[in-house]
Amino acid sequence: MALHSGALVSFCLSVLSAASSRSRSSLNPSLSSLVSTLTSINASMETMWKRSRPTKYTSFRTFIFGITAQSMFPDGVVYEGVGDGEPVSFRGESGANDSMIPLVDNLTAVPYPDTPLTKILMDFRQYRPSNHREFLAWVRGEAERVGVRAWALGLDRVEEEEEEGVEESRGLWLKVLNQVRDFRWRHWCFAREYILKRTSHPTATGGSPIVTWLPNQLQAVLDEMVRLYEGFGGDEGGMGEEVKGIMELVRRQQETLRKEVGKFCEERGVQASA
Ligand SMILES: *[C@@H]1O[C@H](CO)[C@@H](O)[C@H](O)[C@H]1NC(C)=O
Ligand SMILES: *[C@@H]1O[C@H](CO)[C@@H](O)[C@H](O)[C@H]1NC(C)=O
Ligand SMILES: *[C@@H]1O[C@H](CO)[C@@H](O)[C@H](O)[C@H]1NC(C)=O
């Protein structure tokens, strides 16, 4: 996966620069390259199913738990000889590491709901390398400054002669989000197969609630896709058959996710909405 991070960064930058110069003829090829790169990342992640057996995972998962919000460390952990002997609490390596999906989140400005679960997502960001954090903050700021989302998607106003280009951008943008969706869907499937079916411990290694946390972000992406697609005129919006197929899958997935989360919550006696 990390092999593709150079291309990912470079195409995110070219999307920003195309938006900054309001050049649709550079935006669309840049979005298209971004989709291809994310597609390669997706394909390489998919190989994890073959490389790591769900039945073995819980045996080493024990060793990657953090401290924060874990029942086995109710009072934190004292590291002897470190600091002033006060207990500390960290979330550990989980979720903290990778900056690829957060980068695309910050470029596309997917709105996350104001929930305690989203707060955990933001808290994870603290655990990343500082130069990644700075870069992501810059991307976010730049995306806002040049108004990439609103301009790329023609949210304010579209001149007639621009229409075709804008429809293409909209389709490509949805394909970018579709990759993020697929990533998060797979993460949910991993959690289901590797963890939820094998242990009843309610907390993920990073201290987030195991059943509801991943769906919080996944649902946000699914909702954004539906909202945008409908806003662009849905099936009549000129975004093509491929996007239409993607959106059918998105709707099915919304439904499946709702049912699965409901089922796991019921089994475990937890609330489905945070
Ligand atoms: C992700 O990769 C898998 C495996 O190659 C593929 O089946 C799936 O269609 C891909 N998803 C997307 C959104 O590209
Ligand atoms: C975290 O990132 C480092 C450096 O890129 C890598 O070696 C390590 O495997 C990553 N850990 C996890 C859990 O992803
Ligand atoms: C990335 O975007 C989120 C909102 O989706 C925002 O809250 C967060 O601060 C951004 N991250 C950075 C590092 O700017």
TrEMBL record:
Residues bound to heme b: H187
This protein's record includes keyword Nuclease: no
GO BP terms in the entry: L-tryptophan catabolic process to kynurenine
Signal peptide from the UniProt entry: 1-18
Pfam families: IDO
Gene3D superfamilies: 1.20.58.480
GO molecular function: heme binding; metal ion binding; oxidoreductase activity, acting on single donors with incorporation of molecular oxygen, incorporation of two atoms of oxygen
Superkingdom in the source lineage: Eukaryota
Disulfide bond as UniProt keyword: no
Entry keywords, A to Z: Heme, Iron, Metal-binding, Signal
PANTHER family: INDOLEAMINE 2,3-DIOXYGENASE
Similarity comment text for this entry: Belongs to the indoleamine 2,3-dioxygenase family.
The protein, known as: Uncharacterized protein
Species annotation: Cercophora newfieldiana
